[in-house]
Specification:
The chain has 232 residues and is of the alpha/beta class. It has nine helices and six strands; from the N terminus they run αβαβαβαβαβαβααα. A six-stranded parallel beta sheet has the order 3-2-1-4-5-6, with helices on both faces. Helix 3 links the parallel strand 2 and strand 3. Helix 5 packs parallel to helix 6 and helix 8 crosses helix 9. The termini are far apart.
């Protein structure tokens, strides 16, 4: 019963969003920026709606996608001197020169003028947001950015929280506010648009974080090698 009710509510929220806006305004690599919100070592322990290893893999898949496309990227953390912990070392290593807004106390990153300034400085109007926890750090920023006139895309599998019930409620709230929900693989595909641009690079990006995709590439490489051998 819970599943059917949730599905009905999600459907209703989607319909409302579609009526009020162009639901499929595609991500554009020239106009998109990535916001990584509160991916911190302490907060990581609160993520219970995904397996920890799977979740971290998703976050890094999204981060590597941002790096691959050369997209503007902003990192922000909350009270690093407290139990929230520091920014995930993996993200810091991947983006050593990206703006890192260490907020002194604001729960909603949009309440920090330095963060908003950094977002505006990118000149981008499409914001791809992920973070911990989904219901607070992600939802608050997403709704605030939407109200400020941005197109907002929340990456569900790179955002985590206490439970699936909390996550579902957060998704409903964001959808009702016109936020588009997606996942990291879809983000990369939508930004990439066409395999012919760089099939090797895109495939390598996916194979690194998606084991099943790695098998596809192994199969493809084997077939190519067999075809080449047959010609010789």
């Amino acid at each position: 019963m819970r599943f059917s009710i949730t599905a009905a509510l999600v459907g209703a929220a989607t319909l409302i969003s579609a009526v009020s806006a162009d639901f499929y305004n595609r991500l554009n690599v020239k106009d998109a920026a990535f916001l990584f919100v509160d991916h911190q070592t302490g907060l990581l322990n609160l993520v219970q709606d995904y397996n920890p290893d799977t979740y971290l893999n998703n976050v890094m898949g999204l981060a590597e996608s941002a790096k691959y496309f050369g997209s503007a990227t902003i990192l922000t953390t909350s009270r690093e001197d407290g139990p929230n912990g520091v920014l995930l070392p993996e993200l810091k290593k991947l983006f050593p020169n990206a703006p890192h807004i260490a907020r002194p106390g604001q729960i909603n990153a949009w309440d920090d003028p330095n963060f908003v300034k950094a977002v505006k400085k990118t000149g981008k109007k499409q914001l791809i947001i992920s973070g911990i926890v989904t219901d607070v750090c992600v939802t608050f920023v997403a709704l605030s950015a939407k109200k400020a006139g941005y197109e907002v895309f929340v990456v569900t599998d790179a955002s985590g929280t206490f439970s699936e019930a909390v996550r579902d409620a957060s998704w409903l709230r964001m959808q009702a506010g016109g936020i588009q929900l997606t996942n990291w693989f879809a983000v990369a595909c939508e930004l990439g648009r066409d395999w012919r641009k760089d099939i090797t690079g895109m495939a390598a990006l996916f194979a690194k974080r998606l084991p099943a995709y790695s098998h596809i590439m192994d199969s493809y490489a084997g077939a190519q090698a067999a075809a080449l051998a047959a010609k010789n």
